[in-house]
Design a protein that fits this description.
Cofactor: pyridoxal 5'-phosphate
CATH class of one domain: Alpha Beta
Largest sheet: 9 strands, mixed
Catalytic activity: [(1->4)-alpha-D-glucosyl](n) + phosphate = [(1->4)-alpha-D-glucosyl](n-1) + alpha-D-glucose 1-phosphate
Number of strands: 26
Number of helices: 33
Helix content: 40-55%
Function: Allosteric enzyme that catalyzes the rate-limiting step in glycogen catabolism, the phosphorolytic cleavage of glycogen to produce glucose-1-phosphate, and plays a central role in maintaining cellular and organismal glucose homeostasis.
Strand order of the largest sheet: 8-11-12-5-2-13-14-18-19
Family: Belongs to the glycogen phosphorylase family.
CATH superfamily of one domain: Glycogen Phosphorylase B
Bound molecules: N-(acetylcarbamoyl)-beta-D-glucopyranosylamine
Distance between the termini: 17 Å
CATH topology of one domain: Rossmann fold
CATH architecture of one domain: 3-Layer(aba) Sandwich
Keywords: Carbohydrate metabolism, Glycogen metabolism, Glycosyltransferase, Pyridoxal phosphate, Transferase
Structural class: alpha/beta
Length: 838
């Protein structure tokens, strides 16, 4: 290639003026895009035109780096990570890419000079909400870290036309609105209409003998769908590595059935098209709960098949034989959602590329890694055998064959242990038969990991115990992390500026360096500046709360925040019990000297999860009463912040004083919100669950508000017989709180509204709220006491931030690279490509 001879530079900047990084270059490019891309003169340009021109200006710089990154993929033959995930909860791109290009301040200045409002542009961007919560957001943080660490990687997923629903609150209830994120176009994606693969569904298989006399299976599908690639560039922080996220959109193979059309059956003709396009239409809005819908399995198989075919094509394109596929790719299964990949890779290698079974199995077993994200039994995916057989008949054959060989091995190790064999089997044979996707992922992977120390230990002793006993060497822990670029630099510019002023900016890439802040915890001036930043962030959130809910909150009160998906195990209703307890204290003693608190909730409930929706209604009902009771006199405010998403999260975490991480011990696999809060200077009130355990280890027990049972205690009490009613009867404050809810006090006198919630607490209490209630309330009292001493609180907050280094997703990704993927960085050098792009 002639261009390679042209100028190269090691720096982030380039001589290519088309994508130059000076203010003049950026301005020129912006104006050109306004003119040539949007077709507008500055005078007639709308906010959307400005946003689009800014996005394309930034994107040009990404694409330049992308081209250089891809050049190295091909030239260097480097090992690539393929991250397979049904969800990527990216959040808005513009600000983040400006941070990673290191041009944020320049662009702000340039915009202000010409009277354009950068914040309005940033605010205008629709976020791609292609995920439900933690798992999808983790995937997005990992893409950022992979690029920042200069690891060649491709994220593979689904380009849902409608992402996670928008949440509105009407009369206190959640109402779901379709998320039309593509309405104004998406400047960040590049459609690749020529990168397409066919994906087959249904039909039947038949055996035949190939030319070499080998028995093979031929699959005749009854439906074929085409996947089209849409690529989004993912730039690392202050590096030239620009990886890609490749999302698949489903289309009909024949967009028109001419035979039907000619006989006048117009609707019949377009039916096939509509049916095929359905596959990538909408994200299933459930987290931690499976819904055995055929369309969901179609989505999973669709994106997995496209992605594997794509990786195989890339591998063959560099001239390597498929026997070495696992040396060129490391593929991570983000939960079991993509685990049908194990069977699909076998099918592609054996049926389509005519590899023998043993070689194919060797490749498969060495290419995959599997991350588990949950211990909740209702989240463990299994598919009814009948459904699976109808949709993927060939894959079921392959799974049976994998299972036969696997169970033969198991029988040698554990002869006569039929119970164990039944548990390990890929097929659940009790009652209706199911394919167990976690078992398939375990058998087909080289490495299996949990997402926090406690979670990994519990995996080994509970849901994956039999696999751990069989292959202990496959298991490891990879505690989650989050990217400080989005969650500190972009979300909290005030704090970033303050930290930079004392210890420089090296921590943005090496988060451990925040340790250097420890010595400032005792510095009065620093603490005052710290408090000023927090107050500014709280004022900004207060303004947003007023705009979104009409509720006015006092930025001088303590902001006590719980934002995450609504789920009984996360126990938002335990938080409500505390609020009602505080309210009862005020009613009993109107003159009480109580620390003013603003308790803020946010999060979406799965549309079909009745209890979660009732919890939202409860929060809003309690808020309604408390916020309007004159006796409270602003000492207590309750807010449900609607439509919690990445964009609002960026405003919420930086404004928090107290972070609520109060799940029942043993239920939250890790949590990542806990990390974002603490990095932004909130103190945590939490149980010993998920990554809370490690956060407490890092920040120190003195700087963490611990309460509640341990996972072991929870298990023991459950096994001995737990009786929530006896706790209710013996604790007057708890009883008063529950009775007030049960009486209809918060539901305009209707005692039935919250009865299902009250009854579930009194007679079942699956998540042991009552067992932890007193410990929680006592701990909250300690929190209030501590907050009264602002200097002490600020010291603790500074120490929290200083000690969060471990929870950077860079650390997590380094561990994955070293211990699971065995990949190393590749420094991408900029090249100006001569006359090609000038
Ligand atoms: C979540 C876990 O609940 C959370 O604890 C963890 O931090 C996160 O994954 C990332 O590992 N699980 C999900 O979000 N699950 C789904 C299906 O959305």
């Amino acid at each position: 290639m002639a261009q390679r001879k042209s100028k190269k530079t090691n720096s982030n900047k380039t001589d290519c003026s088309r994508t130059g990084m000076t203010l003049i270059d950026l301005n020129r490019c912006f104006n050109e895009h306004l003119f040539y891309t949007q077709g507008r003169l500055p005078l007639s340009a709308t906010l959307n035109d400005h946003y689009m021109a800014a996005a394309y200006t930034v994107r040009d710089r990404l694409l330049h780096r992308w081209v250089c990154t891809v050049r190295d993929f091909i030239r260097e033959g480097v090992k690539v990570v393929g991250y397979l995930s049904a969800e990527f909860l990216l959040g808005p791109h513009l600000g983040n890419n400006m941070i990673n290009l290191d041009i944020f301040d320049e662009v702000r200045e340039a915009s202000e000079n010409v009277g354009r409002n950068l914040d309005a542009m940033l605010d205008h961007e629709e976020e791609p909400g292609l995920g439900n919560g933690g798992l999808g957001r983790l995937a997005a943080c990992y893409l950022d870290s992979l690029a920042t660490l200069e690891i060649p990687a491709i994220g593979y997923g689904i380009r849902y036309e409608f992402g996670i629903f928008d949440q509105e609150i009407r009369d206190g209830w959640q109402v779901e609105k379709t998320d039309k994120w593509l309405r104004l176009g998406n400047p960040w994606e590049i459609p690749r209409p020529e990168v397409t693969y066919e994906v087959k569904f249904g039909g039947h298989t038949a055996g035949y003998c190939d030319d070499g006399g080998c028995y093979r299976s031929r699959w005749t599908p009854d439906r074929v769908v085409r996947g089209i690639a849409y690529d989004t560039p993912i730039l690392g922080y202050k590096v030239n590595t620009c990886n890609m996220l490749r999302l698949w959109k489903a289309e009909a193979v024949e967009s028109f059935d001419f035979a039907s059309f000619n006989v006048g059956n117009y609707y019949g003709a377009v039916h096939e098209k509509v049916y095929s396009e359905n596959i990538s239409k909408v994200l299933y809005p459930n987290d931690e709960q499976i819904q055995g819908k055929q369309l969901r399995l179609e989505q999973q198989y669709f994106f997995v098949s496209c992605s594997l075919q794509d990786m195989i094509r890339l591998h063959l394109a560099i001239g390597k034989s498929l026997e070495y596929f696992h040396e060129e790719f490391a593929i991570q299964l983000n939960d079991t959602h993509p685990s049908v990949a194990v069977a699909e890779l076998m099918r592609l290698l054996v049926d389509e590329h005519h590899m023998d079974w043993d070689t194919a199995w060797h490749v498969t077993r060495n290419v995959f890694g599997y991350t588990n994200h949950t211990l909740l039994p209702e989240a463990l995916e299994r598919w009814p055998l009948r459904l699976f057989a109808n949709l993927l008949p060939r894959h079921l054959e392959i799974i049976f064959e994998i299972n036969r060989r696997f169970l033969d091995e198991v029988r040698v190790i554990y002869p006569d242990d039929e119970a164990r064999i039944a548990r390990l089997s890929l097929i659940d044979e009790q009652g209706e038969r199911y394919v167990r996707m976690a078992n398939l992922a375990c058998v087909g992977s080289r490495a299996i990991n949990g997402v926090a120390k406690l979670h990994t230990e519990l995996l080994k002793t509970t849901v994956l115990k039999d696999f751990y006993e069989l292959w202990p060497e496959k298991f490891s822990n990879k505690t989650n992390g989050v990217t400080p670029r989005r969650w500190m630099v972009l979300s909290n510019p005030g704090l970033t500026r303050l930290i930079r002023s004392r210890i420089g900016g090296g921590w943005i890439k090496k988060l451990d360096r925040l340790k250097r802040l420890e010595s400032y915890a005792g510095d009065d001036a620093f603490r005052r500046e710290w408090q000023a930043v927090k107050t500014g962030n709280k004022q900004a959130l207060a303004a947003l709360i007023l705009e979104r809910t009409g509720i006015s909150v006092n930025p001088d009160s303590m902001f006590d925040i719980q934002v995450k998906r609504i789920h009984e195990y996360k126990r938002q209703h335990l938080n409500v019990l505390h609020v009602v307890t505080l309210y009862n204290r005020l009613r009993r003693n109107p003159g009480l000297d109580m620390l003013p608190r603003t308790v803020i909730f946010g999060g979406k409930a799965a549309p079909s999860y009745y209890m979660a929706k009732l919890i939202i209604k409860l929060i809003n009902s309690v808020a309604d009463v408390v916020n309007h009771d004159p006796a409270v006199r602003n000492r207590l405010k309750v807010v449900f912040f609607p439509d919690f998403n990445v964009k609002s999260a960026q405003k919420i975490y930086p404004a928090a004083d107290l972070s609520e991480q109060i799940s029942t011990a043993g239920k939250e696999a890790s949590g990542t919100g806990n990390m974002k809060f603490s990095m932004n200077g909130a103190l945590t009130i939490g149980t010993l669950d998920g990554a809370n355990v490690e956060i407490r280890e890092e920040v120190g027990a003195d700087n963490f508000f611990l309460f509640g049972l341990t996972a072991e205690e929870v298990a023991r009490i459950k096994s001995e017989g737990y009786d929530p009613r006896s706790i209710y009867l013996s604790n007057p404050d708890l009883r008063e709180a529950i009775d007030l809810i049960g009486s209809g006090f918060f539901s305009r006198g209707d005692p039935d509204l919250f009865k299902p919630l009250v009854d579930s607490l009194l007679y079942q209490d699956e998540y042991m709220l009552l067992a932890d209630y007193q410990s929680y309330v006592d701990c909250q009292d300690r929190v209030s006491e501590a907050y009264r001493d602002r200097d002490r609180w600020t010291r603790m907050a500074i120490l929290n931030v200083a000690r969060m280094g471990k929870f950077s997703s860079d650390r997590a990704i380094r561990e994955y690279c070293r211990e699971i993927w065995r990949v190393s960085p590749n420094t991408v050098e900029m090249e100006d490509f001569g006359d090609l792009v000038r």
